[in-house]
Amino acid sequence: MTQENTTLIVGAGFAGSVMARELAEAGRHVHLIDKRPHIGGNAYDEYDEHGILIHPYGPHIFHTNSERIYEYLSRFTEWLPYEHRVRGVLEGVSYPFPINRDTLNLLYGLDLDEAGAADFFERVREPRDPVITSEDVVLNSVGRDLYEKFFLNYTRKQWGLDPSELKAGVAARIPVRTNSDDRYFTDTYQVMPLHGYTKMFEAMLDHPNIFVEVSVDFAGVRKQNNYCHVIYTGPIDAYFDYCYGPLPYRSLRFEHEHLSDVKQLQETGTINYPNDHAYTRITEFKHLTGQEHAGTSIVREYPQAEGDPYYPVPRAENEALFKRYESLAKLEKNATFVGRLAQYRYYNMDQVVGAALATAKQLIG
């Protein structure tokens, strides 16, 4: 395999791995690199020293309405059905989240049916027109009190910004329900890879046309500059040496803990703490994986400004800066940019797979 007829793919997460598989099956030779010492990107999972399957980079829960994407990934894994549930803790009391009828009844001592819950939201909402910010979205939907109890401080912790400073799409991702459905997602397919994400990635990259190298930085490889094409899934501003300045990202610090004498710590996979603590949430992995174990392993998430880029910060000025980098990217004849960091977009996992499949189809022709 010579570099002249090889495609270099930078990043072995969902975007890079799906692209690698698609190009390999089309007869292309692929050199896939990642600066981390493993494949799988942020979805990488591993067994901790106590034998519990954990997600080092925070919980990754697969959900999609796309049969095509579900069937595509099913080539590389069996599935474990899993419906994620979340609770939000206010003053020591646990409430269903996203907000539903049961949340209202428990919080306010009411006995609302679905129609009553709808009437309640209509009565307390603060109509906003136009809806521009995340604050607008929530106030327009559930009003001031629920906004301040569940959203305001959580958003400040998560983003380091007030909801009024963030685009509407951030809050629009979180539904409000008049029924008692306490699932976090309502997608048709809600599953977890039966043997973990890493095993799924290993199967995806198991192809004679794919050569994988980890602990390899793109900066050193790009100087060779004799690949027939580069597919880049890393931060787009880094690719262009931050020539217009760095794009803002929000990062996370993860605090993992094992509790050897606790079989189950939480009633649900994730508990949110909108108003207490420096962390935003605690996730208990055995809920997600269905694993049986005498102990349990959890992770606390602490949002921060510095560190690995996790979330593009959705503000108009950041989008404008990204568009400048995107204009440069379009001038790169032998490079393709795909993925959350390369497209400065908050993708769910299934959306990354969809974007990678579409991009691969264009490249293969």
UniProtKB/TrEMBL annotation:
The segment(s) forming the UDP-galactopyranose mutase C-terminal domain are 149-346
**Listed GO MF terms:** flavin adenine dinucleotide binding; UDP-galactopyranose mutase activity
One cellular component term from this protein's GO annotations in UniProt: cytosol
Could you tell me the superkingdom of the organism this chain comes from? Bacteria
Q: Does the keyword Mitochondrion apply?
A: no
Cofactor(s) demanded: FAD
Q: Which Pfam families match?
A: GLF (PF03275), NAD_binding_8 (PF13450)
Q: Which UniProt keywords apply?
A: FAD, Flavoprotein, Isomerase
Task: Please report which protein family the annotation says this sequence is part of.
Answer: Belongs to the UDP-galactopyranose/dTDP-fucopyranose mutase family.
Q: What is this protein called?
A: UDP-galactopyranose mutase
Question: Which species is listed as the source?
Answer: Stenotrophobium rhamnosiphilum
Q: What does the record give as the organism's lineage? A: Bacteria, Pseudomonadati, Pseudomonadota, Gammaproteobacteria, Nevskiales
